[in-house]
Design brief:
Layout (H helix, E strand, L loop, with lengths): L2 E10 L2 E11 L4 E5 L6 H9 L6 E6 L2 E2 L10 E4 L11 H11 L4 H15 L14 H13 L5 E5 L7 H18 L2 E6 L2 H7 L2 E6 L2 E6 L1 H6 L4 H6 L6 E10 L2 E6 L2 E5 L11 E6 L5 E3 L7 E11 L2 E8 L2 E8 L9 E5 L6 E3 L6 E2 L9
Parallel strand pairs: 3-8, 3-9, 6-7, 7-8
Antiparallel strand pairs: 1-2, 1-4, 4-5, 9-10, 11-12, 11-14, 12-13, 14-20, 15-19, 16-17, 16-19, 17-18, 20-21
Helix pairs in contact: 2-3, 2-4, 3-4
């Protein structure tokens, strides 16, 4: 069943925490709310779980209105950042506890625990206590406790943030495989753009309580609706440069510092903007050691090796630019190079509102 938000808002006194006019999370989706700390994503999850009541609007799961139902009647399971395991209970006891509360028979409890343990590889751990488990094992138990309930919605509030980087990467894969096997709706909250991009069917990017853009991961990365969304995704972050637009011999040209970039494919109406913020992702900046007429001269001011890639900081024409190159290229600080910015990879934003400009601007979020 789909989960629908209709004019949902949450205020704490005068402070607006969440405002979602309309949103549908489809049955069986892996849907992620992502954004910086304090943007309202965890509050949104609490509204779904019934841990907070909305100040206005309705939440509906299929034909059931959730808005004023207590948490235990919503048929949702919550996986917390802190694991929230009972230290005096074994893994089996932690997994069985919600089923005991629900009054299931011993036989039913054993069968559900067995299924969850098998799914998550917890069989060898059933007689251990939380203090005897690693962080990753504790997180599996927390997920297993949610699975045994067989809910319609799984809610995850930054469940991997306490794990180290290699274990986070492993758990991301396990969560994705688990979602594929269960086919149940997963609603996930994170501030980590890498988690959001790698896990999600769709993503809602939040800022100051409002959804900035909602869509497929690739849509958000390739066609961000504004400069905030553009800069939130990508590591290193997108280059955002002030540029002045003018009519050129081949159409529209953008002046960036002392250099000029042809933007021939744009509609002439965009000239009305005058000054824009030009965005180009570091992996789309082309760097070469060969001087050709269409390339800009630059000097490398910083080289950072990141495994299989090198991040370069370039100085050219009165401004700085970040580029990503293969590690084997072996660039050096102080080296003179040549740079190309492909016009088809350029994003233009209004410097005052941050909104995307141009014919391919996305429509309203949904």
């Amino acid at each position: 069943m789909d989960l629908r938000f209709e004019n949902v808002s949450k205020r704490f006194g005068e402070r607006l925490a969440v405002e979602i006019p309309q949103l549908t999370i489809r049955r069986g989706e892996f849907f992620t709310f992502v954004g910086p700390s304090g943007c309202g994503k965890s509050t949104t999850l609490n509204l779904i779980a019934g841990l907070e009541e909305p100040s206005s609007g309705t939440l509906q799961l299929g034909d059931r209105r959730l808005t004023h139902l207590p948490p235990h009647q919503r048929d949702v399971a919550f996986v917390f950042q802190s694991y929230a395991l009972y230290p005096h209970r074994t893994v089996f006891g932690n997994l069985s506890f919600p089923l005991e509360l629900a009054g299931l028979s011993r036989e039913s409890i054993r069968e559900r625990v067995r299924q969850a343990a098998e799914l998550l590889g917890l069989d060898p751990l059933l007689e251990k206590y939380p203090r005897q488990l690693s962080g990753g094992e504790r997180q599996r138990v927390a997920v297993g406790r949610a699975i045994v309930r067989q809910p319609q919605l799984f809610l995850f509030d930054e469940p991997l943030s306490n794990l180290d980087a290699p274990l986070r990467a492993q758990m991301r894969k396990e969560l994705r495989h688990l979602h594929q096997r269960l086919g149940t709706t997963f609603i996930y909250v994170t501030h980590d753009q890498e988690e959001a991009l790698s896990l999600s069917d769709r993503i809602a990017v939040m800022r100051k309580g409002r959804i900035q853009q909602c869509g497929l991961p690739r849509e958000l990365y390739e066609r961000p609706v504004n400069a905030f969304v553009a800069s939130f995704f990508g590591s290193p972050s997108i280059n955002l440069l002030p540029a002045a637009l003018a009519a050129g011999p081949d159409g529209i040209a953008a002046r960036i510092g002392e250099l000029q970039l042809s933007l021939a494919g744009l509609d002439a109406k965009i000239l009305e903007a005058g000054v824009v913020t030009l965005g180009i992702r570091p992996e789309h900046v082309r760097v070469s050691r060969e001087p050709l007429p269409e390339r800009w001269p630059a000097e490398i001011s910083l080289v950072e090796l990141h495994g299989g890639q090198t991040i370069l900081e370039l100085q050219l024409g009165g401004f700085s630019l970040t580029a990503v190159e293969r590690a084997e290229a072996r660039y050096r600080e102080g080296e003179k190079v040549w740079v190309v910015i492909p016009e088809e990879r350029v994003h233009l934003f209004d410097p005052s509102t941050g909104n995307r400009l141009g014919a391919d601007s996305p429509g309203p979020t949904s």
